[in-house]
Specification:
The longest helix is centred in the C-terminal third of the chain and has 20 residues. The chain has about 260 residues and is of the alpha/beta class. About 35% of the residues are buried. It has a 7-stranded mixed sheet with strand order 3-2-1-4-6-5-7, with helices on both faces. Helix 2 links the parallel strand 2 and strand 3. The protein has 9 helices and 7 strands.
């Protein structure tokens, strides 16, 4: 099985070597043919230099890309998807710190045999109790707004790990218009409207790794940005910016299968 992994990163040079080591160890123990794509989102430190050097010494399976400027997580993931979509059958993306571990990759890959999209879900457990009250409150408000504005009602749409069947999901990435942190919500919103099969997998932070102490999201500033992005998703959906004849035919076939073949 040909598997692609996208890792967006931004100003992560202080810990990137640890990510190299962990992802290499997983790849060496895997039976899959792995392609890894790091996408630097316009870092101002040495992140791109380090991932470029890592790619040069592992050129048979590692790629390094860089955005011209800081464009957002969604933009980085879409760059990585375009780089890998003709090379792999399934693609995962995960945060650069790999704080869910690497063994969870195997579960995602297995579930993608049946489901078109697989998403991480942190809400099932108390593993996130280390988060500040302000963070929990903002997450609750964000989830409520997400459901109201986009129809995405998953309790955790923002966990930084998701997986896709490439052939099924290529059209979703083409329709995407959001480059920021609400990219995940946009993809799920489009997928739900076209009746994609989506699986949630419970995850928790790897107990063998340090929990993330900082985040690239500045709580107030980026919360406001994300609310505006949700409003944009609502607008695009209302005015048919996400229309796709190809995906409508996919839905029609599923309706026929349910109503007439059973």
């Amino acid at each position: 099985m040909k598997i692609g992994i996208i890792i967006p990163c931004y100003n992560f040079s202080h810990q990137i070597e640890k990510t190299f080591e962990r992802i290499t160890n997983w790849k060496n123990s895997s039976s899959h043919e792995v392609s890894l794509c790091f996408v630097d989102d316009g870092s101002s430190d040495q992140t791109f230099e380090k991932i470029s050097q890592f790619a040069k010494t592992n050129e048979d399976w590692v790629f390094a890309l860089k955005a011209e400027k800081n464009m957002g997580k969604g933009h980085s993931i879409k760059l990585g998807f375009r780089a890998l979509e003709n090379k792999v059958e399934k693609v995962l993306f995960t945060d650069c710190d790999l704080h869910y571990g690497t063994q969870i990759f195997n579960r995602f890959i297995d579930e993608l045999e049946e489901y078109e999209i697989v998403i991480a879900d942190r809400s099932w457990t108390a593993s996130s109790t280390h988060q500040a009250i302000s963070r929990k409150t903002s997450s609750y408000v964000f989830n409520r707004l997400t459901g109201l504005l986009t129809g995405v009602i998953f309790r955790d749409s923002q966990a930084g790990m998701k997986g896709f069947q490439v052939n099924s999901c290529r059209s979703l990435f083409k329709l995407s218009k959001i480059n920021g942190f609400a990219f995940d919500v946009e993809i799920l919103s489009i997928a739900l409207s076209y009746r994609y099969k989506i699986k949630q997998i419970p995850v928790k932070f790897d107990k063998n790794e340090d929990l993330p102490q900082t985040s690239s999201i500045k709580l107030i500033r980026d919360s406001i940005k994300m609310v505006f992005e949700l409003a944009r998703i609502n607008y695009y959906a209302r005015f048919s910016f996400y229309h796709s004849d190809e995906l409508e035919q996919k839905v029609d076939k599923e309706i026929f299968k349910v109503n007439y073949e059973h």
